[in-house]
Every structure is written in C-alpha cells, then in structure tokens.
Design brief:
The protein has 339 residues and is α+β, with helices and mostly antiparallel strands. The chain folds into 2 domains: 3-102, Phosphorylase Kinase, domain 1, CATH 3.30.200.20; 107-336, Aminoglycoside phosphotransferase (APH), C-terminal lobe (Aminoglycoside 3'-phosphotransferase, Chain: A, domain 2). The chain has 11 helices and 10 strands. It has helices spanning 3-16, 64-73, 119-138, 155-170, 176-187, 232-242, 258-261, 266-277, 285-309, 315-322, 325-336; strands spanning 24-28, 37-42, 45-51, 84-88, 98-102, 107-108, 197-199, 208-210, 217-220, 227-229. α3 (119-138) crosses α8 and α5 packs across α9 (285-309). The longest helix has 25 residues, at 285-309. The radius of gyration is 20 Å and the shape is globular.
Length: 339
C-alpha cells in the first residue's frame, strides 16, 4: 500500500473507527487471492483491512460489503467471527470499497493433513471444524437480521445458473469436462427440499483461525461468498477439498492414510455432521459434491481471467490456480457418477 493511500486510510479510520490512533503501517497478507487483505499496525493496536481489487470486476463478485454485513450480524452468535469496525463505500479513499475489522491472533492450518500435528490433535481439529459448520447452519437468520441475505427459491437452481454465467464470462478456452459437468448438473438438479440456512460459501480448514494453543476455532474468515442457501453445499465443499491431492497446492487428503493420522473418512465426517444437526445422511450427496467441484472450477476460472487481465492480487498464483480448472471438472464428473 502506497504512503498516500495509507494516509487516506488513516484519516478515514480516525473518523470512523472508535479508539483508533496512528501512525499507521500496512503489511499485505499472502492469502486473500480474491480480495486483497492487509494487516494494519497502529498505535492503538492491530487491525485487518480487506478491500475489493482494482479494475473491472464480474457482477456480484468480491462482495466485501456482504462480508462486513454477515460478520457484524454474527457478532453475538456461537459462530466465531472477528469484530468488524467500519465499512468504507467511498472509493476515493482507497480506489475500491473496503472494511476494517479487528485482528484476531491465532494460527491458520493450511493443510487438512496437519503434518506437524499428532493424531489426537488432528481428530479434535476436525471435530471442531464440524461443530462450527453446524453452528453456522443453526443461526436464526431472521433474528440476526439476515432474513433477506439471499434471494428466495431453489438454491441449487439459482447457484447453478449464476456460476454457469460467471464461468462463461471468464472462459478463456473450451474445457470439455466442464461442459459435460454443467450438463449433468442441469439434468440432475434435485427437488428443493426446503432447507435454507446461512451458508459460508467457501468453508475449508484454511479459512478458519484456530487458537495458538489447543484446537478451539477463534474465527471463521472469508465470507465473500456467503448467502442463504442449502447447508449441504458447505458440507460438500469440505469433502471436495479432501478429495484433492495433499501438499501446499492441493491441500487435500487424496491417498492419505487417514486412520493412521487420526482423520475421519468422508462418510464419517458427513454422518457426524448430520447427527449434530439431527438430519438424515442425504442419498443424493453425489450431486452436492459434483456441484462443489463445478463451482470451485468456475471460481478458479475467474481467478485465471483476472490474472490474464492484470487485475489479480497475485498474478502468478492466479495463473497457477487457474490451471487446475480441468482437474476440478474431471473430479466433479467422478463425483457425479458415484453411488
């Protein structure tokens, strides 16, 4: 962040963030591929600033205002979120909409295999991950002021239409498996079963902040894709991540001896979540999982397009992530034909 930008942010925070006092410094986080994110260091303490990227953006993408709204609404619920301070919609301050929230100390677990942990700790982290997911889906959205946070109607039909349009708008080359996956999803849309909860939209272990000591989740981060919708979309997103290769790129569990590491199988995690919510294990979970792969492929295609257009937060990483789109399409087709 340039010095004149920091000065404008400082002046804005002096007017809008109670208790703030400068001087102000900023360090950009490596994470936050979609919305650039900075740690702000000030005399009054540490803060986090999250803003939209510069340049032309897809409609409804990079919704930092929605992130701000949902975290503010969840402040007094069992869902752990950072306390948000203020939203700036005046683009003259930083060239894009942004918000400032508290800095929550803790640790990010980048990989679900948790290579530096022991089996008991791994098991406890995954149990906590499932607990927090169920808490998100238990929120009384009307009571916290989020009853209008998503449009009414069939969530999956709406989401499939939205992400197909987003994918076509950012398409850079034909991917046959992606076309086949979209066609399969359109042909196998389940009937709307009436489940409608708050959904995070990108629920995975590296979007959770855990206590530095122990396995308590201190904050759920990255609410950009949150809405009201079907809770199994979040559950399927967890399983989707686990189907990817292990390591810093895939951040998955494919081929890992989970039992030896203290990690549950896909089926055990799904069953534990359903038991916590008091619902039956879904017979059509393959649809939810196939959709999760499709949507993530569409998201990564958008990241690639922004990198090619020069609007990505980290262009090299954006192109690397975009190269995975065919793999997500193939895995989505595999999931579609399970069971």
């Amino acid at each position: 962040m340039e010095r004149d930008e920091l000065d404008r942010v400082r002046r804005w925070m002096e007017r809008n963030v109670p208790g703030f006092s400068g001087p102000l410094g900023a360090t950009k986080f490596d994470s936050g591929q979609s919305n650039p994110t900075y740690r702000l260091n000030a005399a009054s303490g540490a803060y986090v600033l999250r803003r939209k990227p510069h340049g032309p953006l897809l409609k409804s993408a990079h919704a930092v205002d929605r992130e701000f709204r949902v975290m503010r609404a969840l402040a007094d619920t069992p869902v752990p979120v950072p306390r948000v301070h203020a939203l700036c919609e005046d683009e003259s301050v930083l060239g894009a909409m942004f918000f400032v929230m508290e800095h929550v100390s803790g640790r990010v677990i980048d990989e679900p295999s948790m290579p530096r942990s022991v089996p008991r700790e791994r098991a406890e982290v995954i149990v906590e991950m499932g607990r927090v997911l169920a808490e998100i889906h238990a929120v009384d959205v009307d009571a916290v002021g989020l009853g209008d946070f998503g449009p009414p109607g069939d969530y999956y039909a709406r989401q499939l239409g939205r992400w197909t349009k987003q994918y076509r708008a950012s398409e850079t080359e034909a991917i046959d498996d992606m076309d086949r996956l979209i066609a399969w999803l359109e042909a196998h849309l389940p009937e709307d079963d009436g489940q409608r909860t708050l959904v995070h939209g990108d629920y995975r272990i590296d979007n959770l902040l855990f206590a530095s000591e122990g396995t308590l989740c201190r904050a759920v981060l990255d609410w950009e894709l949150s809405t009201l919708g079907h809770p199994l979309a979040d559950l399927a997103a967890v399983i989707m991540q686990w189907r990817l290769p292990p390591g810093p790129e895939g951040r998955g569990l494919a081929g890992v001896d989970r039992a030896a590491l203290g990690l549950p199988s896909d089926a055990d995690f799904v069953a534990a979540y359903c038991a916590r919510r008091g619902i039956d294990v879904p017979a059509d979970f393959n649809f939810h999982l196939a959709f999760a792969f499709f949507r993530m492929g569409a998201i990564l295609q958008g990241v690639k397009k922004r990198a090619l257009d020069g609007n990505a937060s980290n262009p090299d990483k954006g192109l690397r992530l975009g190269s995975f789109v065919p793999r997500f399409a193939a895995l989505g087709l595999e999931a579609a034909h399970e069971g």
